[in-house]
Design goal:
Shape: elongated
Largest sheet: 7 strands, mixed
Oligomer: single chain
Mean pLDDT: 96
Order of helices and strands: EHEHEHEHEHEHHEEEHHHH
Strand order of the largest sheet: 4-3-2-5-6-9-7
Number of helices: 11
Bound molecules: S-adenosylmethionine
Strand content: 15-25%
Length: 261
């Protein structure tokens, strides 16, 4: 393949460490019949080893040049979808499937919106393995009380088991990112307790954490009164990061019961 100049706008940091690639592939543990979707295959650092283990691999790449190179491999088992992953509609592409395995060394500039986009489609997904900026993985897995516990932690942990795996240093990439990275495994699961109105849960959490230094009473003023917060068993003087995922769900359900939407 002709030399490809990494495009910053597409968050292109290509993996060049073969040992690390193998470690990531082992963590994914592909089985030949898996229906796997790789987001951002780039120059194929993960794509090659994954494809060797799979009957078919679907890859989603936004960069036209990289997608063209992948198609030029003329591999009928490598299905290249040239598309923005933020527009990916898994149901439409894989109707009726609930066992997709989604993987990727994600472009760090869109990782959070992409995670939210995939969360909405979790009914199609069995598991996800991503290489991400370490700070994002810390936020995903954070426990209440931690300074990085926030909207991403609550909304991911609400419906997924989040398992941070090993660290990856900047030297494993070309060009080198300025940040440390980490592999994370996400396994969608049935929420418990379940939010009667998941969109309201999301709105409350988003609103509260956009003013994370404010108490619940003040941060949620536009949505609920302090007595709703108390009915959910919480002090209205708590800050959002002190509220566990289950407590957020309880609060949203009490609000739903009071007709908030
Ligand atoms: N998987 C390769 C590797 O590990 O070397 C490349 C990883 S690189 C961090 C991110 C890849 O995602 C690039 O190939 C980039 O072009 C692609 N990408 C960036 N934004 C994208 C988007 N919105 N949709 C699909 N692919 C995207």
């Amino acid at each position: 393949m002709q030399e490809h100049r990494a495009r910053k706008r597409f968050g292109q940091n290509f993996l060049t460490d073969a040992m690390l690639v193998q470690r990531i592939v082992r963590a994914i543990a592909p089985q030949a019949d898996d229906c796997m979707v790789e987001i951002g295959p780039g120059q194929g650092a993960l794509t090659g080893p994954l494809r060797e283990m799979l009957n078919v691999l679907h890859v989603v790449e936004i960069d036209r040049d990289l997608a063209t190179h992948l198609r030029e491999r003329n591999d009928p088992g490598l299905r290249v979808i040239e598309q923005d992953a933020l527009q990916l509609d898994l149901q439409a592409l894989f109707p009726g499937r609930d066992d997709l395995r989604v993987v990727g060394n994600l472009p760090y500039n869109i990782s959070t919106p992409l995670l939210f986009h995939l969360l909405q489609q979790r009914a199609s997904i069995r598991d996800m393995h991503f290489l991400l900026q370490r700070e994002v993985v810390d936020r995903m897995a954070a426990a209440p009380g931690s300074g990085v516990y926030g909207r991403l932690s609550v909304m991911l942990q609400y419906c997924c088991a989040v398992e941070p795996l090993f660290h990856v240093p900047p030297e494993a990439f070309r060009p080198r990112p300025k940040v440390q990275s980490r592999v994370v495994r996400l396994i969608p699961r049935e929420p418990h307790p379940i939010a009667e109105d998941p969109a309201l849960l999301e709105r409350l959490v988003k609103s509260a954490f956009s003013m994370r230094r404010k108490t619940l009473r003040n941060g949620l003023r536009a949505w609920v009164d302090a007595d709703v917060i108390r009915e959910a068993g919480l002090s209205a003087e708590l800050r959002p990061e002190q509220v566990s995922v289950d407590e957020w769900v309880t609060l949203a359900n009490v609000a739903t019961g009071r007709g908030v939407y």
